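A reminder from the course coordinator: this example appears on the midterm review sheet, so study it carefully.

Given structure:
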């Protein structure tokens, strides 16, 4: 069981697997639980919706859920309840919504690292300086051109 926990992200003795096992607010997770009678429903305080429906697929109940964009970082419990069998329990981790460093591990193409923010800020200031310089030069040329025609 320990080998399965590390290799597949299985997060509890109750046989609920949440993939990925560490997520950010707003990401979608895949849920897999032991075989039981349908309907099966997964519950967690971290979900955007109250519950997620699971369907029978390849010897297990499977489905997905979106993590609330307002979920605080921490470890969350997940429970899968079935008409027959279960309940199955486990845990997963919700990480920080805005990591300060490290590689982007997915979850919405707008995630940026500190280096990305620094490069973007430098680019914006550089662009602003170029625009102000061009406007100033245009204004100076226009004034200079006006003085030459007056003479």
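Designed residues:
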């Amino acid at each position: 069981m320990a080998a399965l926990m590390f290799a597949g992200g299985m997060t509890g003795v109750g046989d609920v697997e949440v993939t990925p096992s560490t997520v950010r607010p707003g990401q979608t997770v895949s849920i897999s639980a032991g075989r039981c009678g349908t309907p099966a429903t997964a519950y967690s305080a971290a979900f955007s919706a109250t519950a997620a429906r699971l369907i029978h697929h390849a010897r297990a109940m499977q489905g997905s859920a979106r993590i609330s964009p307002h979920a605080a970082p921490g470890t969350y419990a997940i429970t899968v309840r079935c008409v027959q069998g279960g309940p199955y329990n486990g845990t997963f981790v919700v990480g920080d919504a805005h990591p300060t460093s490290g590689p982007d591990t997915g979850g919405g193409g707008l995630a940026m690292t500190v280096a990305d923010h620094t490069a973007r800020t430098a680019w914006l200031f550089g662009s602003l300086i170029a625009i102000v310089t061009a406007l100033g030069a245009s204004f100076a040329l226009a004034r200079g051109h006006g003085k030459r025609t007056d003479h």
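The CA atoms of residues 65 and 125 lie 40 Å apart. The chain has a mean pLDDT of 74.
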